[in-house]
Amino acid sequence: MADGRHAERQLVDANHGLTSLRRRGRWRQAAHAFCTLRPRTLRPNVFSYSIAISAHEQARAWTRGLRLLSGMRSVRVAPNVYSFSGVLGSCLRIGPWRLALVLLALMPIVAVPPDEEDVGFGSQLAALEKPSKWELAVCVLRRMRCLEVLPNRICYSATLSAEEPGRQWRIAVQLLRDMHSVRILPDEISQSSGLSACERGGQWARAMQILQRMPGCRITPNDFSYNGAISACASVGGWQRALRLEGAMARGRVVLDEIGHNGLLGSCEAAGLWALALSLLLRMGLCRCTPDDISYNSALPACGRAGRWQSTLRLVQAVWLARLTPSKLSYNSAVASWEQRGASSTCWQPCCSHRSHSLPRREGDFTVEADRPKVKALTDELLKLKCHSLWLRRDMLNWRFYQSLFPRGQGHPQKAEEDIDTFLQRYNFTSEHQHLEQGGLSPLMLASIEGNITIIKKLVEGKADVNELMTWDIKDAQLEGHHTALSLAAALSTRTTVLTLLNLKADLYIPKDRLGSNALMTAARFGNSDVLPLLVGGPSDLSLQNNFGGRPLHVASISENPSATRTLLQLRCDPDTATNIGCPVLCFSPQYGTSPGHAEMLLKARADPNISRAPVGASAISLSENWMRKVREGKATLAETNLALCNRGTPLHFAALNGSLEIVKLLLEYQADQDATWSDQKITPLALAEQQGQMAVVALLKSAAAGPASS
Q1: Do residues 486 and 559 both lie within one domain?
Q2: Sign of the torsion formed by the C-alpha atoms of 68, 69, 75 and 78
Q3: Which domain holds residue 675?
Q4: How many CA atoms does the CB half-sphere of 2 hold within 13 Å?
Q5: Residue 409 CB contacts under 8 Å (≥ 6 apart), including other chains
Q6: Smallest Cα–Cα separation from 53: which of 76, 25, 32, 31?
Q7: In this structure, is the dihedral angle defined by the CA atoms of residues 367, 316, 452 and 532, taken in order, positive or negative?
Q8: Of 448, 475, 503, which one is at a domain's C-terminal end?
Q9: How far apart, in whole angstroms, are the C-alpha atoms of residue 154 and residue 427?
Q10: Residue 464 belongs to some domain of the structure
Q11: Distance between CA atoms of 646 and 652, rounded to whole angstroms?
């Protein structure tokens, strides 16, 4: 008798050990420990088998678990629901799912109690949510009914969650009805899954019915529920219903988030309600919601089709400030509205052409002086909206940066003198050193951006470190890395500000951004041509390279100001300089879609129109060979083709590939060779243009090849 109790205690201890190993994910050790229970002295029981099967389930070894289950009868151990559940879960997830249905049929034969069956079904249905095997989930649910096992709320919720990605709205609605018929109140998960299925299927009426029934199920609709119904209404143009839902949210004190706003904006776009779309965009900032690509790409076409060119200009500037990308539809709508009213379609290029290289572009410079006051006023208004939104979110680091941009937006007007306390109060600082605790820009950096000479001098006199490094990335402005007050001023401020900082012993070489660019390259990238001569410490500075082998002239050619390229050429930069991968400066502008004025400046400075270079260095050669291989295999993207073209491609190849019509004209005027070939496939510029569908370039090259007689 004592020996029996001792063996029983040993088995309990062994089962505890198995459980511990399984919970820690050590399924191999658990399987080995189970094997030690085989001798007659310590016979495993149903709990031992269940734990071992569960360990094999974790290891995704469904065949081993099935062997253990089938062997239980031979040692006279009756399986329970947990034994079946482990093997069932493995079969449903990774094994043969038909075998899982056989196991479901066997469960009542081995006399598993109905309530335990229900637990097993619920857990395995939940396992089907992630793979989205909705057909199998429905099959399991039906099998439960055949076995006269009543599904509970967990089973229905799991099945609905599995169906949602499959857009099976009919089944979702039927399951919700079944729950009501068996007097099971759907929970929040079930209702939300049903709403999502109806939303994806465009069934606004069904979505509204589900939403209306939620209070009767003791569920308060939340933002997720309303978003689903609003999106369903918006997908079929039901903007009035969507607005009524938005009103119901306000009455229920539910805040509309970005998804809900985008749903409303989508319905406004479909209905052409440009004024309502603008109102919703404005309200997003007040509701602490940040408009994204979807928001602007819904509002822009609505305004464009209505001919509201001033509104589209305002939205385009907002897109630029938010570092977002307008869609082709938005671009075309905006340009069409500008052309209808005789406005300059190039007025948005300085804002966003360097950010959206995938869009077709209208090449040219901003030259309409009459539009400048309007653009300044719009910039000021957009900055106020942005600052207000950041203030409501208490995002003080970004708020201070945008506050410092106001003078830049107005052309850096002369500031009235102020003391340091007033300046700090204006930026919500309690002391000069608060940024050391909070992060973000220092008072000196903010004063440098806004060009506040008086405050700069007072702060440095008060022992502020003029070479203090920025410990925060300004992602909105692409200022990331180790910047100082000097490099920030070089990017965003005036010549006087930069000269003041240099006189106060600011170091030219301490600032380095993420690409390894110093203050000179930062100024060149932002096109701040006025400050470039001040930042050249000697002739060698003009040939310094960043981490990607780019020199100041390369960086200037991707800015929106050709004057930056002209200034560097006047400082004796080599117009034929190339990067490590072989890309000359003349090939940069067509790649990045910047102004053709850069190419014109370089050609006037006697840059070689037929220049072609090879990569230098083992790393550059290896990268180039990889890109060339992709081109040969026909797997290269446009960006990879541009990179491969750096290896012996000519400027005309680059211009033809990227559809830069104005640059093609310039190169032909400077005697660029149309018959130049690239790679072992002997690809000409004309062939590249034809491959990319650049038909305007194709026509120009063919006309030039035919000679004067053809014209």
Answers
A1: no
A2: positive
A3: 648-711
A4: 0
A5: 376, 379, 380, 383
A6: 31
A7: negative
A8: 503
A9: 53
A10: yes
A11: 12
Identify the DSSP state of 683: B
For the chain, how big is the Rg over CA atoms in Å? 34
Q: Is residue 544 part of a domain?
A: yes
Q: Are 229 and 211 in contact (CB under 8 A)?
A: yes
Are 497 and 520 found together in one domain? no
For 518, list phi and psi in degrees, rounded to 5.
-85, -170
- Is 559 domain-assigned? yes
Report residue 348's pLDDT band, with 50, 70 and 90 as the boundaries: very low
Which of these, 545, 531, 659, lies nearest to 591 by C-alpha position? 659
Torsion of CA 476, 479, 485, 490, to 10 degrees: -100
Q: Give the contacts of 505 (CB within 8 A, at least 6 positions apart).
A: 466, 467
Closest by alpha carbon to 498, among 464, 461, 449? Answer: 449
Cα distances from 645 to residues 357, 361, 375, 596, 690, in angstroms, run: 17, 22, 38, 19, 16
Same domain, 541 and 481: no
Distance (Å, whole) CA 202 – CA 218? 26
Contact criterion met (CB below 8 Å) for 137 and 162: yes
* Beta strands at 512-513 and 481-482: parallel, antiparallel or unpaired: antiparallel
Lowest mean pLDDT among 194-198, 377-381, 404-408: 377-381
Neighbours of 67 (CB within 10 A): 13
Same domain flag for 499 and 522: no
- Cα distances (Å, whole numbers) of residue 143 to 41, 101, 107, 149: 41, 8, 11, 9
CB 510 within 8 A of CB 469: yes
Q: Burial code of 285-320, b = ≥16 C-beta within 10 A, e = fewer?
A: bebebebeebbbbbbbbbbbebebbebbbbbbbbbb
Nearest-5° Cα angle at 123, 121 to 128: 95
Cα 170 to Cα 191: distance, rounded to the nearest angstrom = 14
What is the three-class DSSP state of 421?
helix
pLDDT (tens digit per residue) in 308-346: 766 776 777 667 666 666 666 666 666 666 655 554 444
Structure confidence at residue 671 as a pLDDT band (50, 70, 90): very high
Report if residue 150 sits inside a domain. Answer: no
The secondary structure element, H or E, covering residue 513 is strand 512-513
What are the tokens at 692? 């990319």
Each residue's pLDDT tens digit, 397-434:
889 998 888 887 666 677 778 889 999 999 989 888 88
Tell me the sheet residues that pair with 515: none
Q: Quote the CA–CA distance of 366 and 352 in Å, as a whole number.
A: 13
The SS3 of residue 618 is helix
Could you tell me the CATH number of the domain that includes residue 399? 1.25.40.20
**Do 406 and 475 lie in a common domain?**
yes
Same-domain pairing of 406 and 487: yes
The per-residue pLDDT for 343 is: 47
H or E element at residue 438 = helix 435-438
Residues 478 and 573 in one domain: no
- Residue 20's Cβ-count burial label (10 Å; 0-12, 13-18, 19+) is middle
CA distances from 419 to 396, 399, 456, 488 (A): 22, 21, 11, 22
Contact present, 136 and 103 (Cβ < 8 Å): no
Instruction: Identify whether residues 492 and 551 lie together within a single domain.
Output: no
In whole angstroms, what is the distance from residue 683 CA to residue 428 CA? Answer: 60
Structural domains of the chain, count: 3
In this prediction, residue 117 has a pLDDT band, given cuts at 50, 70 and 90, of very low
pLDDT (tens digit per residue) in 65-102: 666 766 666 666 766 666 666 666 666 555 554 555 55
Q: Which amino acid is at 71?
A: G
Closest CA to 656 of 623, 699, 599: 699
Report residue 267 as tokens: 């319905």
Write out the two tokens for 72.
């239980």
Q: Which of 503, 533, 560 is the last residue of a domain?
A: 503
